[in-house]
Specification:
Rossmann fold; 660 residues; SH3 type barrels; single chain; alpha/beta; 22% strand; 6-stranded antiparallel β-sheet; globular
């Protein structure tokens, strides 16, 4: 019996005591279907750069537990745990922290940038910080704005590669799977709000959590929005007992599968060998002196020695037309007897009807006339032969992607060593594999988010894909600056704690991600050696900062808020910062943002934006008065988004508190 039907009958029971007992028994015996796991207490993050304050959260270094600060006296601090137990501790033995669910006000600090791309294209954004808080921040800058989320989260293998609440999770941890599900559920719930109605999320995972992740994503995104379970065979382990392993899965869901279908969105993969065939045809056309018959003969010779490893249908493309396009010919007969498709088709030389199959033609007489006018019908030497239809390779270059594909995983590792000049990161993904999927599932102007950014493969894939097809895709990549368990232990033993420059320099953001992307874009490694000629791209590197609410209210944090407003305005050009000479407003002709500090000068700024060439898409008005903000906003045209920022920014994160 359904719950709604039970409640209908329950309401007919007049005895309140009996009604209560029946309801309790129904709820006790009704099985909950779906994923059941132990949801753990909120996660937290260590913040060694922040000051320990009364009323705030800290981590007690002796055991890694979270406490609230009751009082601070000299070099001593009074702490209370989640059960209210009070202890005294030395101030030097605690570190400032935040638990998820506490309101935080994220800001961003620029820590570097490279600009080699078109100044009108959006910059890629690489953020060093806790991805849960970064996702909350993106809820402010990018609500329902992301085309694709691709993530490669921790696989939870139990070999100390993943931290939960500042502790590495080991295989012996009996709550290992519940912790991982709690960890993922919080982030996926926030991530869902960032996707466009046509947005897609792809999550990479292995056998350890594949089945649990699939059910979790059913709950977060809805099982009706499942799109595909892609299998990447990346190699085989010969020492495995029961199977070769080496498999990664890419689980794909849509924000709304119905919306994807309504928009006729289909994934298409380039046929294997397409580029090689086109290149061979181009060479044959050139060598033949632009002679169709000679070029076709050369093309047939090429196929004799290059036929292996191609899509079977590719080999039929052995002819070259009068413009140098490679094609194949198909039959023109109807697959079934169709009297209405039986008519005379005259040979262009003899003027007599050509031989027709008894079933008739595949096209109507009117449609056939159109194909004749397009030069698509290829006749034989005379009317005794049957004509064929020209199907050009560049018109059928794609196919539905296979859900299972093979690609050696070691390729990604070798590539990263080549980029950086030495080995710094284990088992990175192959950017070529990611490029293939990004090419299939996103438009050329897509926003692509990866909030488990790791070594930065996603960013490199997007940058290379843009260079390949002149796209303007934007990558937002979030990674942290964690170290491996081995490096973490060694640095702590040497006296270098988290927050120390020696420690942070070895983290993944500073040691791998940032130098990798800089090298790919500029072509120059950290040590000054040459890697390549570089690629056109604009990239901004940022640290996630935690701002004091009182300073935000007092308008003292503009420098750290400006990058958020820049991201919200599409991230084109430079971040507009306030200078010592700024009084009324700041803007830049190449930036997508302008900032009005004096609402009374709105008309002056609006005139500048109207009369001078610029890229401004968003004007932020810093004001404490909604009335002033509304009045100032009226000065700007409808094509520019206007927003009073401080009030809306604080409100956005007050809302996030309840969501957490």
């Amino acid at each position: 019996m359904s719950k709604s039907m039970f409640e209908v009958y329950l309401n007919e029971v007049t005895d309140e005591g009996l009604r209560a007992r029946l309801k309790a028994e129904f709820e006790r015996t009704t099985k909950k279907f779906g994923l059941v796991f132990e949801r753990h207490s909120p996660e937290g993050i260590r913040m060694p750069q922040s000051q320990v304050r009364r009323g705030r959260t800290v981590i007690r270094e002796a055991d890694g537990t979270f406490h609230k600060v009751r009082a601070i006296s000299g070099d001593s601090v009074t702490l209370a745990d989640e059960h209210g137990n009070v202890i005294e501790e030395k101030l030097s033995n605690v570190t400032a922290a935040r638990q998820f669910g506490e309101v935080v006000f994220p800001g961003l600090k620029t820590v570097g940038s490279v600009r080699t791309g078109n100044p009108e294209d959006p910059a890629h954004v690489v953020i060093n910080g806790e991805n849960f808080h970064a996702l909350e921040m993106l809820g402010y800058t990018h609500p329902e704005s992301v085309d694709l989320i691709y993530i490669d989260p921790p696989y939870n293998t139990g070999n100390k590669t993943w931290q939960y609440n500042d502790h590495y999770v080991a295989e012996q941890d009996s709550f290992r799977h519940s912790k991982w599900l709690s960890f993922m559920e919080r982030r996926l719930t926030l991530a869902k709000k960032l996707l466009k109605p046509t947005g897609i999320i792809i999550v990479a995972i292995d056998d350890n959590e594949h089945h649990r992740l699939r059910i979790l994503m059913d709950e977060v995104f809805g099982d009706q929005n499942f799109l595909a379970n892609l299998t990447w065979q990346g190699g085989v382990k010969n020492d495995s007992r029961f199977g070769g392993g080496g498999v990664d899965y890419q689980i794909a869901y849509g924000r709304s599968k119905d919306t994807l279908v309504e928009n006729d969105i289909r994934w298409k993969d380039l046929k294997p060998g397409f580029d090689q065939v086109v290149a061979a045809a181009s060479q044959a056309w050139s060598e033949s002196g632009n002679d169709s018959a000679k070029a076709s003969a050369l093309m047939r010779e090429w196929w004799k020695s290059n036929g292996d490893g191609f899509d079977p249908g590719m080999k039929m493309n052995n002819r070259i037309d009068e413009q140098g396009r490679v094609y194949q010919t198909d039959q023109l007969r109807s697959p079934n007897p169709r009297p209405n498709l039986q008519y005379d088709l005259l040979h262009p030389e003899t003027g007599l009807p050509v031989r027709m199959h008894p079933n008739g033609w595949v096209y109507s007489e009117e449609r056939m006339a159109e194909k004749l006018a397009e030069g698509r019908i290829e006749f034989g030497k005379d009317h005794t032969t049957s004509p064929r239809y020209r199907r050009y390779l560049d018109e059928v270059s794609t196919r539905v992607p296979e859900n299972v594909f093979k690609s050696e995983r070691h390729v990604g590792s070798k590539h990263l060593v080549n980029v950086l000049g030495d080995k710094r990161f284990p088992f990175p993904k192959d950017h070529n594999v990611l490029m293939r999927w990004f090419r299939m599932v996103t438009p050329k102007d897509a926003v692509i988010l990866d909030f488990f950014g790791g070594s930065g493969t996603t960013a490199e894939a997007v940058i290379r894909l843009n260079a390949e097809d002149q796209g303007t895709r934007q990558c937002i990549l979030v990674t942290n600056n964690e170290l491996s368990a081995k490096d973490d232990a060694a640095l702590r033993k040497a006296g270098h704690q988290p927050g120390f420059s020696e420690y942070e320099a070895q983290g993944v953001f500073h040691h791998v991600t940032k130098p990798r992307i800089e090298t790919v874009v500029t072509g120059v490694r950290q040590d000054g050696s040459t890697y390549s000629d570089g690629l056109p791209a604009n990239v901004e590197f940022l640290d996630l900062a935690y701002l004091e609410e009182s300073r935000v209210h007092a308008a003292l944090e503009y420098e750290n808020l400006a990058p958020l407003f820049w991201m919200k305005s599409c991230a084109v050009g430079p971040v507009v910062q306030r200078t010592e000479d700024t009084q009324d407003y700041e803007w830049n002709e190449e930036s997508s943002m302008a900032v009005l500090f004096n609402a009374g000068k709105a008309a002056e700024l609006a005139e500048l934006l109207t009369t001078k060439p610029n890229q401004v898409k968003h004007v932020f008005i810093i004001t404490d008065s909604p009335e002033q903000g509304d009045l100032a906003g009226e000065a700007f045209g409808g094509e520019i988004t206007v927003e009073p920022i401080y009030g809306s920014y604080l409100d956005a994160f007050q809302i996030n508190r309840s969501d957490s």
